[in-house]
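Data deposition worksheet. Section B asks for the primary sequence of the deposited chain exactly as it was used as input, without tags or linkers unless they were present during the calculation. Section C holds the resulting structure in token form. Section D is free text for depositor observations; keep each observation to a single sentence. Incomplete worksheets are returned to the depositor.
Section A, Depositor: J.P.
Section B:
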Amino acid sequence: MRVGFVGLGTMGGAMAANVARAGFAVTAWNRSPGRAAGLAELGIELAHTASAVAAAADVIVTIVSDTPDVEAVLFGPDGVAAGAAPGSLVVDMSTISPSATRDFAERLAAGGVAMLDAPVSGGSEGARKGSLSIFVGGDAAQLERARPVLAAMGTTITHLGPIGSGQAAKAVNQVILAGAYLGVAEGIVLALKAGLDVEALVAALSGGAAQSWVLSNRSGRMLANDYPLGFKLSLHRKDLGIALQLARETGATLPVSALAEAIEAGLIGRGHGDDDVSALARAIRQLSGLGD
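Section C:
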């Protein structure tokens, strides 16, 4: 099976590398040059356009930043749709609007091209390790076709329903994470203000009901007030925007997500959009008099 990759950023580059290591023939392209360092050494062929990637592949993976970016790489000049042969399959692993995903699938289907939406959770660490959790929407038979490729990138692959369901599931994931990051940030700040040994406390909490991935993997960053990139805060804010729009469409009320989105907007305005999303703690620290 020939695999194409459109998007070689923090996530896409690592994911393409894992697919190549799994033995697939991979052709790739990125909108911004210079993001493919080391990929050629893995045998990945670099193309000049997204349409050239599509023409060389049976399964085309797209992973870019936002809904307009997906539309551009799919349907823009020299986009995937211009090169994809009838019978090929697009797997969009970006995090975008569920309703836009359904529209894109209809447009691709008019040219005989199938589509799955398969956004991921696990951040840059999971992308490098090939341990991502993948939420899939679309036809079950197309998922089985793509499964060997997805298995090279993730350890949990879950089919959640028709096209757009993967994106809705990712929105739920980001909503839950918003609450987890805010909860851990507030807990760390309260512990600091109370004069506790925070490292000892985190170890104790990890044996009880407060245990979470965020507590284990991001509390240290919140304590140090240093937020090296795992998943950009600006991208999480974008994802919360998608979730809040889905909430409006479905009649759900998400007060914690709305608060997190507002705090993230303020941090982005202060130049922290490229920090890891755990930088939510930066705002809680400042509000509590612990500095920026």
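Section D:
The chain has two domains: 2-162, 167-287.
Residues 2-162 form a domain with the Rossmann fold fold (CATH 3.40.50.720).
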